[in-house]
Structure formats: C-alpha cells, structure tokens
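It would be a great kindness if you could assist me with a short task in structural biology. A protein sequence and the structure tokens that stand for its backbone fold form the material at issue. I should value your view on which stretches of the chain appear to form regular backbone elements. The record follows directly beneath this note.
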Amino acid sequence: TTFMPGEALDHMPEVDFLCRGEGEEVMLGLVRALNEGSDFSSVPGLCFSRSGEIVETGMAFGAKNLDAYASPYLTDVIDLRHKDRAILLTSRGCAYDCAFCYTPRASQKKVRFFSIERVLDEMKYLKSKGIRAFWFADTNFSFSRKRLVTLVEAIIRDVPGISFWCQTRYDLVNREVLSLLRRAGADNMAYGLESANPEVLERINKPIDLERLSEVIGLTQEAGINVELFSMFGLPGETFVQALGTLAFVKKNRVAVDGNSISQQAHLFFGTPMNDDPATYGIHPFQWTRPAYLSVCRDYETDAMSADDIHRISLIWRLNRNDLAEDVLIGKNLFHRAAFI
C-alpha cells in the first residue's frame, strides 16, 4: 500500500490504515501507539482518516541493517509442517529504474542486504525441518558479484544437498558464476526480458543487449540450469508484430513457455511511472469507474495495440504454453482445451 492513494480509505470502510514504507517498522510504531494510546500522527509511515480528512505521516524508511528484523523462520512464526519449499530474501531493493516497476521507487533505488550468516542460519534451520528446496525472491540475486560468490561458496560448504530458484539480470552473471550457482543447487534461473524489441525496451527504460542475453541463456542451459524469461505484452508503443517477436525470441532460445516464462499483459500498478502518467507512454486506460484502491492494472489499450490485439496476443501465448501441449499429447483435459481453442 506504499503508493495506494489515501482516498482509497473512503472506499474501504473495513481498513483503518495504509502502510507507507517498510512494514516491519510501521507495524511496530503502530502497535506502540495503540498500546500507549498516543497520537497516530506521530508514527511515520501511516495513512489514515480522521474526521473525514486523510492524514499522511510521511514515509517510513527501513533499517539499514536488515538483520535488525527478526527472522519468521528462526523465531518459529511460520508453521513449516507439510511444506517442502521456503521463500528467502538475501537482499531488498533495486537500483534500476524500469518504467513498469514500483520496486526502485519503494527502495529509493538502493539495495540492502541480510548478512550471509543470517541467510545460512535460516537455510540450515529450514533444512533441519526437512525443507531442501528454496526460492530466493531477491530482485537481483547477483547484484553484488563478490557477495554472491561468498554466499554461494558458503551454501556449498554448509548447506549441501539443496536446490533453489533465483532471478537476476543477464549482465550480472558469467560462465564461472553460473557454474558455481549450479554446484550450490541452482536448478532454475529467471532473467528479465520483457520485450525482444529494442525500441520497446528503450521506452520502458530497460535497455537490453538481446544478443548477449541469448548468449547468457545458452551458458545457463549449458551449466545445467533451466532458464525462465519474464516477459510482457501491451507495452508502450509495442505493435502486435513486435509482441509476436517476443514469443519467437523465447522459443528460439529453447526456453519453455512454462512457469515464469508464461507471458502476461503489463500491469499498471500504483507507484510506477507508467501508472503515474499513462498518456506519456501512449497508454489509454478504459474510462471505467473503479474504486480508489484499484490501479488501472490491465484495463487499458495503447496507441499501438487495441484491446482486441492485446487479447489476441494473450491467447497466442496461452496456445504455446507447455501445459496445453502436454495435455493434448496425453489426452488430458481435452474438453477444456478444445473449448478454449
């Protein structure tokens, strides 16, 4: 709710507060104010309604040292029974500035880290509970290559016999790093593609060397790691043909249209440059009445693609999904698949 407009409270009578900033700090301040009976306006990071007026107390900025936050795993807050995979963060934030993403603004384009010791303690504890598969949710897992190497070498040494998924930018890895990641248990790597058209990438402020990305995909696959590619359609200025080109790029590089490689329409989320000023990006939100707590999301068309075009490209991606092809081959869900086709 960091960027949700305060007016949203008028449409959510069951909600008392919106959080502006890092949740741990804001929640602690709110609980203290409730216990002490003090004025909420003294708590940074809150948005609330008072006598019909929206009160904003400003952003709350999180701890520089992320280890200050208690681990939900090490403190037994999460019931691990019947779980075989755990989500972990080794860092927070992003230093880049993609037009479709709110993370850079939320983190002030800064990346902060948990200590390697903290990450290892969590992994070892989770492994002792029978969990051997991990999902590293860092925006850029290899943002600091030196730190990554130290962390991965420690995982090889102290937490053997595990597997994990991670995501990063293609220009933050090389053959040696990929080999090390595989030894540590990496079985899936996700890279941000978004679009296979340089002009579209420039419009969303995410320049990519597509030839180098193809090379890195190949290196990752050679290392024995499955590749996933995040992509979107309905991007600013993207034509129907260019959107098809993104699918062609994915297939040309032998990336399965499965998991995170299943493309989706770009979403206009609160706090993103594309949502702040859609017209500048050639995006035209539908003139629908929506409550203030909902962003435009997928309810738009663009200068280059009509709503029908966007729907068509969505269907084409779905027809290329691995699970659809597999169902057809083995005769599973045939009535459902036939109805869709």
